[in-house]
Batch of 2 targets.
Target 1
Amino acid sequence: MRISLLGANGQLGRDLTQALAGRDLQLLTRQHFDVKDHAAARAALEEFRPELIVNLSAYHRVDDCETHVEEAYEVNALAVLNLVRIANGLDAAIAHVSTDYVFDGRQSIPYDETSPPSPLSIYGNSKLAGEFLVRTQAKKHFVIRTCGLYGHAGSQGKGGNFVETVLKKARAGEPLRIVDDQTVTPTATADLARQLAVLLPTTHYGLFHATNEGACSWFEFAKAIFEIRGISADLSPTTSAAYKAPALRPPYSVLENKRLKDLGLNRMLHWRDALAEYLG
Ligand SMILES: NC(=O)c1ccc[n+]([C@@H]2O[C@H](COP(=O)([O-])OP(=O)(O)OC[C@H]3O[C@@H](n4cnc5c(N)ncnc54)[C@H](OP(=O)(O)O)[C@@H]3O)[C@@H](O)[C@H]2O)c1
């Protein structure tokens, strides 16, 4: 299977490259083209003629999206529509990765693929716009929503990932105040990549939730990182209100991998096991 991977240098991109080893891959980074350059994207993809285009590129600095609204929609929606048109022209499938931030977090049980989205932020709205463009315009598509990614490559756009950031601060003896009022499922990109390698070669198209199993707050996640590493850190809980981030985050954005489970395809580990594997 010929697969083009956009955002191949990112944390999910690096792990997916490994999980798809043996396939005929076109690895595309910002060095090849900016996804906002529609003609350059078309030229590169039409030259390779993939059977599947996987889009991992995104403008996902959540707080910056609030002030860079055009950039958010250009990357997270308009560039995605261009990729959809290219995929349709090549009769290729498109796989697009989206986010738990399409939900407002008013629910207190996990969101499944039938739950109505209602984003709180520009980032969430722009990603939802991208989802809708894929779901309504692509002939063959996967939209995969995930949550709280961390991987060894570190998130390029965010300058590191949560795990490495808290470990670095703890090693430097800095106090850590971590929000305890956002319930999520941190997800290891290595595990998600293995899951995608199972799903994407199939023709089970449509919308999927794919996160690690279980749920915790960011504070509980930080606590688990230090427990597993055997580090004593100056860690205490805080609230989103005290943190004063520019963008609103959902207080609860746990996703249920319902469709993967219904199809017998769910391979995702519990978040604690995935974290132990990452730290190990
Ligand atoms: N990180 C999370 O917690 C999280 C949670 C839920 C969903 N997601 C979604 O998961 C996907 C992968 O995220 P990730 O954490 O692996 O991100 P990442 O490590 O930042 O990787 C994204 C990649 O896309 C590239 N990219 C960004 N803007 C681009 C542009 N305009 N043109 C070309 N390439 C561009 C980046 O290149 P540069 O390094 O040059 O910018 C980077 O290599 C994204 O769709 C994101 O929205 C992420």
Target 2
Amino acid sequence: MKLYAQVRWPGYFPLSALLAASLYGQDITLPAPQKTGGMPLMEALAKRSTTRAFDSRDLSSQQLSSLLWAAFGINRPDGKRTAPSANNKQATDVYVLLKQGVYGYDAKANQLNLVLAEDVRKLGGTQSFVTNAPVTLVFVADLSKMGGGSEEAKRNTANINVGYISENVYLFCASEGLVTGARGSVDRAVLGPKLKLRPDQAIILAQSVGYPKP
Ligand SMILES: Cc1cc2nc3c(=O)[nH]c(=O)nc-3n(C[C@H](O)[C@H](O)[C@H](O)COP(=O)(O)O)c2cc1C
């Protein structure tokens, strides 16, 4: 059951419009992701790179929806995703850190479920550049979904699962004229409680997305 009212978010609205409308504390239904077009793959590969300087300008809701779909959205009727996962366990949760709060990406419902109505973007990394980026994604492994095996084996698999998702984000950003940077340097002890993680969930990687700094 949802604890919060839900708001539909038209594609042309920038994230800041949400702020202006004071829609804090609510789940957000995203516009449908754009699944066609984009840059030819080889050109996107040629442009893929890590950026550590972001403009503070917001993404549009359409860009955010397409970004999340590219990262780890559902791309087939059987519920499989844009990134592979070991045994199709889909054991990675994508958390989205925005100005207006922390959300969990629900790929099936194409919505953002509110976790915390607080701007914790600065906790998405230990380097100062993270604060400026409008969006930071945090990839969290759900070890409880990964079946048997040692903790070490599960964490190895979790790292590989997240690598595919992170590369999807890199290629989407290259294609969209956005910039991005993956980050292993995250203070997990501080960010974990803000994401309300259970002991069997582990922060694997953070990745900021935005426009290049002019
Ligand atoms: C697993 C992983 C962790 C990373 N962690 C950080 C990080 O904490 N801080 C950072 O500035 N860059 C981080 N990076 C980005 C790398 O430094 C970057 O990919 C590398 O310098 C190569 O640059 P390129 O991505 O532009 O090819 C990370 C990349 C990966 C794959």
